[in-house]
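re: that chain from earlier
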Amino acid sequence: MLSNIDIAIIIGYLLIVVIIGIVVSRKTETGEDLFLGGRSLTWGVIGLSLFASNISSTTLIGLAGATYSVGIVHSVWEFGAGLPFIILAIFFVPLYLRAKITTVPEFLEGRFDRRSRLIFSAITIVTSIVVDTAGGLYAGSLVLKTFFPELSLWFTCLALALFAGIYTAFGGLKAVVYTDSLQAIILLVGCTLLTYLMFQEINFSWSALVNAAPEGHFSIVRPIGDSELPWTGILLGVPFLGFWYVATNQYITQRVLGAKSIQHARWGIMFAALLKMTPFFIMILPGAMAIVLFPGITESDQVFPTIVQEVLPVGVVGLVMAGLISAIMSSVDSTLNSASTLIVVDFIKTKKKELSGKQLAKYGRISTFVLMLVAALWAPNIQHFGGLWSYLQQMFSIIVPPVVVIFIMGAFYKRGTGSAAFWTLILGLLAGTLTFIANQLGVWPLHYLENVFFMFALLTTLFITISLNTEKPSAETIKQFTFSREMVQWENQDLPWYKNYLYYCGLIVLCIIMMFVFFF
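^ sequence. v structure.
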């Protein structure tokens, strides 16, 4: 049970979040205020918000459980995210900001046609709510039930969704990024304390930790036949899922679209990429140390709750629980805000062009509450999918290949056409669903990450073939919506080295290489 001190800390945190939401909501009047924070976000809040949204409760619960069960191999999802962030900063930020888009699907309409925009927007809305938001609610509810067993899973999911939905609906993106910034700090402090106390329990002995773990537990590179994450999956699948999640996912890129300038967008992305190096040490290693301290845990999703309950002293439990609730809020508020943005901008606004900024904000708030209820009702069903982490990754593997193809080809292949994008999305989703079903039935031999690359190669061929047999895009479309070399240095000339984002790109690549070398 939680002590009164722990409860007071949690309540204090929740009150601060409410105050932030109230203050920001008073200045949120138009659709642009609600959806993009008035395009006034600076690099610090962008970076912290990107990190907080990227490190959700599903990460805390899922990664700790996966590390306990199969090893540190899944850490590649965290520190490896630096590469997709670099791709976003160098190639796609200038494309998005030059087009002055509000939603990522809006870019597809400019580059291809309206069909691709609506299909991709619908896909993003469904996955944001059914996978991201519901997954965050489910993971958070698991932990809260550990401390309050009498809580109903359904009721807890609904209560968490309602709390996040209220301040998101009224405060919009600015409320989301400000609360996310607070949440990121609490998350970092809380998880660092947790890691320190667990390491202290094993006398700060790295050898004791490694020796207690099964053979290969501390290796990132696994053999081809590995059922969790073979090295072929890291090489062929992880980069594509990372690119989709970081560079094309509305709930991540929305902070970038709301940046006050391209410099702040790129600096914020670099800040987030550097922060993504920390989860290995403060979120993944605790899962490995639990092998020494708590052997015999049978359900992977209970590893993190057990650690919190058994290791932390009074007061620190409240801080870590506040960090966990922060993670829940950061993922839920982000997905709710981005999904409501897509509904209003991509569907309602395009049909009712006469709507004022205040009317758009009204529709955005209504959409947020509806999506909140849908996510809360679906979240408890995740318990039937056999592990939160598996649920998330396998759901994503269906939609990623066609989306990655149309964005990469759209940005770099000037001959790409609207018909090619449309049919790549339609046939790619159909093929992804069929191979997913075949894999579940045991009749498709490829690991789902290997299948991502297989589908990417197949759909790229399809995209090029259709493009070469349909009318090429106009010169104006190519000029405005495809990448050119000068974009790398857009508004980056004559800056001192410490403000040049390219130096930080190099630092991030170096950190990733060192992680692979040390934990090969």
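The chain has one domain: 4-389+510-518.
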